[in-house]
Specification:
Blueprint lengths: L1 H12 L4 H14 L14 E3 L2 E3 L3 E3 L10 H6 L4 E7 L12 E4 L4 E4 L8 H10 L7 E5 L8 H12 L5 E5 L14 H18 L8 E5 L5 H13 L4 E4 L12 H4 L4 E4 L3 H15 L5 E4 L5 H10 L3 E4 L1 H6 L2 H16 L13 H6 L5
Parallel strand pairs: 3-4, 3-13, 4-7, 7-8, 8-9, 9-10, 10-12, 12-13
Antiparallel strand pairs: 1-2, 5-6, 6-11
The protein binds flavin mononucleotide (FMN).
Length: 363
């Protein structure tokens, strides 16, 4: 089924307008009679945030913004799914066109602007799959026109915590004006205090849900010092490094490169991997990290793990490599373990972090 999808549908999708292609991919996933995937090798298992992940390869936020297909995504072999970003109130996002495929660069630029069906619709869908199993987290954000951004995150946690495995506080979408300012130390301090408080309140009589912080790869190292310091003080459960970049590293598609928005895919790999390693050395083991940005092969996924990621997430790679990518990354990771004579992936986490941070800054 997966190879059928990649051979027949994926090439067709790549000829269409990217947003239409995405809608068709979701429609196909909703209808496809996907079989349950074969169990993953125990050597791919990873413990993080108090959860046991069957394999470390997740689908990043933004693919299933409204929680329409989390179970289909689990059936594709992902070890976990992050749905969203979701905002408290429904909002349309930016005018189209707002999603651009840079084929020659194997990259994407998006300025969707957190288009969301809103927390009520997403909570209802997640509630309807209660007991279905699998690790499904939610990425939460703030409405564009909100007055109190922090209150928006709290509202999302209150509505969604009972229905998810983890919550990701997204302060790094480049397409909601001002959102990234929440990464500044004082604002982040207040945000995380209220987020953790909301998490504790929603956990009364139920399991405490891990809270992860997702950051931009565009932070300066001084800002990263602050962010990791604040995150550690509030004892958050983990960080995702990271979101799309507003930088434009050496792109071939010069015209499309001028589009405003966040860049993802292969050209993001070097910067996001460097930021991951920088975060890893600052976190000093206080919490695990998820690495995201430009993963489109087993080698790229393993490089993230060695740079400090306990888990990885991808989105853009699927557009260019198809859904067979998930299986090929998993089998490559097993090969890398064999070659390196390692028993489990945990042994590889952070092995190269110091080396990565010593390299010249990726240009
Ligand atoms: C179309 C699109 C929409 C996205 N929407 C979100 C979002 O709602 N929230 C978020 O935190 N990240 C969002 N992202 C960022 C991804 O989750 C991921 O961090 C980033 O794309 C880097 O991974 P990649 O290079 O594998 O795509 C989006 C990315 C794309 C391409």
């Amino acid at each position: 089924m997966i190879s059928l999808f990649d051979r027949l549908l994926a090439p067709l999708l790549r000829t269409l307008d990217p947003e239409l292609a995405h809608a068709l991919a979701l429609a196909a996933l909703k209808r496809a009679p996907l079989p349950r995937p074969a169990a993953d090798s125990e050597r791919l298992r990873m413990q993080a945030f108090g959860l046991t992940f069957p394999n470390p390869v997740g689908i990043a936020a933004g693919f299933d913004k409204h929680a329409e297909v989390p179970d289909a995504l689990l059936r594709l072999g992902f070890g976990f799914v992050e749905v969203g970003g979701v905002t408290p109130q429904p909002q349309p996002g930016n005018p189209r066109p707002r999603l651009f495929r840079l084929d020659a660069d194997q990259a994407v630029i998006n300025r969707l602007g957190l288009n969301s069906e809103g927390v009520a619709a997403v909570a209802a869908r997640l509630a309807a799959r209660a007991g279905a199993g699998g690790i499904v987290g939610i990425n939460i954000g703030a409405n564009k026109d909100t007055v109190d951004r922090t209150a928006d995150y709290v509202a999302c946690i209150e509505a969604l915590a009972p229905h998810v495995s983890f919550l990701t506080v997204n302060v790094s979408s480049p397409n909601t004006p001002g959102l990234r300012n929440l990464q500044q130390a004082a604002a982040l301090d207040e945000l995380l205090a209220r987020v953790i408080d909301a998490r504790e309140r929603t956990a009364v009589g139920a399991a405490r849900k891990p809270v992860l912080l997702k950051i931009a790869p565009d932070l300066s190292l001084g800002d990263l010092d602050d962010v990791v310091g604040v995150a550690r003080r509030h004892r958050i459960d983990g960080m995702i490094v990271g979101n799309t970049t507003i930088s434009r590293p050496n792109l071939r598609e010069a015209e499309k490169a001028k589009e405003q928005g966040g860049l993802s895919g292969r050209p993001l790999f070097a910067l996001s991997t460097r930021m991951l390693a920088e975060t890893y050395v600052r976190a000093e083991g206080a919490f695990p990290l998820i690495g995201a940005g430009g993963i489109d092969s087993g080698a790229a996924a393993f490089a993230k793990i060695k740079a400090g990621a306990s888990l990885v997430q991808l989105y853009s790679g699927l557009i260019f490599r198809g859904i067979g990518l998930v299986g090929s990354i998993k089998s490559d990771l097993l090969d890398f373990l064999r070659i390196g004579r390692m028993e489990s992936l945990a042994e590889a986490v952070g092995r190269d972090a110091a080396e990565v941070t010593a390299q010249p800054w990726p240009g």
